[in-house]
Each structure stands twice: as C-alpha cells, then as structure tokens.
Amino acid sequence: MANEVLTDYVAAAAAVMQQAQQAFEAYKKVDAHARAVFLQQISAAIEAAREELVAAAHEETHLPLPRLNGEISRTTGQLQLFANLLQEGSWVEAAIDTADDTRTPARPDIRKMLVPMGPVIVFGASNFPFAFSTAGGDTASALAAGCSVVVKAHPAHEKTSQRMFEAIQQAIATCKLPQHLVQHVSDTGIHLAKALVQQELTTAVGFTGSLAGGKAIWRYANERERPIPVFAEMSSINPVVLFPGKLRQQPQQLAQQYAASITLGMGQFCTNPGLLLAIKGEGLNEFLQSLSDEIKRVAPQSMLHEGIYKAWQRNVNTLLEQQDAELLVQSAQEAGAIAPLPVIARVQAQAFIANPVFKEEVFGPFSLVVECADKEELKEVLAQVKGQLTTTLMATEEDLAAHQDIVEIQQSLAGRIIINSAPTGVEVCAAMVHGGPYPATTDARFTSVGSTAIQRWVRPLCYQGFPDALLPDALKNANPLKIWRTVNNQLTNAAL
C-alpha cells in the first residue's frame, strides 16, 4: 500500500511538471515587454483583493493588520521592480563579439546572453504569507526570467495562498498566457514535495524556511540523476557587535533599538538579531540593564502557529539548560496561548566557543548576549560563527578605526554588513543582498531579495556563427529592444 501511495505522488508530480514544461515552452518566447505587463497585472489583481487577502492572512497567521498591509505593498512593489527590470533590459547581460576575418585564425561571431532555465518549484514561507510565498519574490523573479512556476503552498496559510493564486490566474487570463504558467499545490505532506523536486522536468527550486527543511530539499535535488540548483534561505542568527565607544555613548538608545528589533513580529524575521557580542565594561552593563527594562515591558503576541511556538519554547529551554547559560531577562507581561514571553540570555565567550548549542538559531523573540573579556576574545567568538544573512556593527567612528580587523572578519560572515542600524528590515532594491554563506543559504552567490534575484533562474547561453535572423532579439544587430549590451568590449544602448 505504501508503495502505491508513493507512486501516486510521483505520477501527480509528473503531471504537474509536464504542464509546467508545456507552459514554459510557450512563455519563454514571450517578449520582455509582455512579461512586464503580466507582472503589473498580477500586482493590480493583488491590490484589488487587498482587503480580502489581509483578512485571510490575519486569520491564518495572527500577524497584525498593519504588518500584513505593509507586506502586500512590498509584494506588489517587488512585481513592479521586476517589470521595470524587464523594460530596462540590462539583466540579460547581452554580449556581442563580432567576427574578425583579419585575425589569424579568424575570430567567429560570438554572442551571449542569459536565458531562462525552465520550470521552477517555489516553496511558500510560513513567516511571510505574501512577500515570500505564492506571488512573492521567488515567483516574481522566476516569471520575470521567463520560467514557469509551481508553487507549493505553506500549510500555515493555505487559504491565503489559494487566494493569491487566484489573483495570478486572473492576470494569466487577462494577458492570454498559458493556463499552467503558474500552478498551485497545497498538499501538506513531504512526499509530493519530494516528488516535485525530483521530477526530471524541474530545473530549480526556491525555498525559505528551516535549516532542516532546506537541507532535505537540497538532498532531494542532489539525489537526482541530473542534480539541480536549490536556492534555500534557512538559518541565521545575525550577530551584532556592540563596540565599547558606542556602548558608552548611547547605552539606553541602543537598548531601546534592539529590544524593538528582537521582538519585532515576535522575532519571526530571518534577520532577527539573535546574537549580541560585546566586550565587558560599564557601557555594556548599562546597556544590559536598559535592555532588561525594555524587554520586561514587551507585551507578548501570538506567533504564526502552534508548531513555531512549540519549537521556540523547546529551543529556548534547551539553550537555558546548558551549563554556563544565564537567563538575563524575560518579559513580565502575561503570556497568551501561543504568545511567548520574550527572552534575553547571557553567556561568557569561552562557554559560547565550547558549546555548539549556543550557535544555533532560536527562531522567535530571543537573543543571546556573549560577553568577551577583550578584543582578542571577541575575534575568537566571531571565528566560531557560521554563515549569516546579516552582521552588524554598532560603532562610533573611533570604534571602527580601532577595530578594522573585526570589520574584516564580519565581511566574511554574511551577505549584508550593516553599520549603526538594526538588521530587521530588508529594502527591496537593486543593491540588496539577502543571502549569505551556509547555513544562511545553500548558495552565497545569490540573493532572494532585490532585482538581482532574477539571476537564480537563468543560465548563460552562447550563440556562435548565427545569422541575425536566428538570433534572440537582444543579440540581433538590428535590435528592437531597449537594452544595454556589451559590443566588442564597449557598453552601448541598443535602442533604435
């Protein structure tokens, strides 16, 4: 019986991916302008359903209405960002080296650009029902690239995901694009997810979630006869170095800033500052006292769902049970059913270095303070930290000048290094990097936020000796597109 069930999942995945492949074959021929209009239509359909979508997500995730309205705006903004990118055109990285018959041997005509990979699987994220889920950044960037998409809905907000999918379907119909360009799967088990990843027509996967989930998907992809890339964002504790000068100068202000950041959205952000590092001193003592006062006043809010709450509770208890771990402060407010009391714990540097438990993510309203005896011990601690999405320096100009070696270490840790602001909050723009070394992601060369997120779903293709009529429009001599190209090492605007 078990084998029959698994066979059913494999057959279901094959059917879905066959439809995705057929849609891709047609969609990859759709020009950049039409794809941009399609993304704008998705944005408009989401905006038209804003009130209904926000209500559904609020019911399923417990996230507050202002947060969800902001996330809707971020989602529509991402779609517009990629529409603008398609209109501008430079993302295809068109390069043309024309033939040179005067050279010996003669150089052939060689042209290159980025082309879409094929059908993509996108796994929705539990903590972002809009911006990292059905019509979020992974889907938007994949559609911009020219790929078809199969969305695996997150079980924490299936109704919201289904309604977002309906908005995409409206846009597909309006733009007269292939019916199965975007498909929606809501099965809650792992078997269909595995079958989709391992189906031979799948070309890439986007995932935002836990380390265990990301590693499982990465393993499925590499068990295939033809392995495929998995772009998984998984685990990050986002270390913050609080330098001595800054602590002496602004202990209370820093405490207010970081109490708010640690508890923002009940800590359910992948950029939550889960590790605070500092050298012992009066400035640190004042900061910790103020941080304790601020945390005590934080009113607990419900987490996304019971599973996340129980995992947070289990992880906090495991950490606090470790020898040398100290509970520094816990909120003094009344907890709800799945509303945790925010926690700050403390450990000394050598204990942190010796115990791997202290280096693991505690997803939720929690941060671990690591006290270092001096600069050398701080460097030892940083050397033990794994790959991160962000790392932050809270520092005066004098601190930065005196700790250049610390700054150098931090640049190797993460995809984004920040000076004098909290890491929570990710701006959607061309310069943003939301990625980092493992285990933050499976591939530190890419970002899941910002316009360069499109690079995950494309590959370079070289055309040698092609007549102009057979070339893609971006590479033709008489280029009909507004696009920047490199022609014989000269950057030119190819618009006619």
TrEMBL record:
Keywords: Oxidoreductase. Coiled coil: none annotated. Transmembrane segments: none annotated. Gene3D superfamilies: Aldehyde Dehydrogenase, Chain A, domain 1 (3.40.605.10), Aldehyde Dehydrogenase, Chain A, domain 2 (3.40.309.10). It comes from the Bacteria. Pfam families: Aldedh. This is 2,5-dioxovalerate dehydrogenase. It comes from Filimonas zeae.
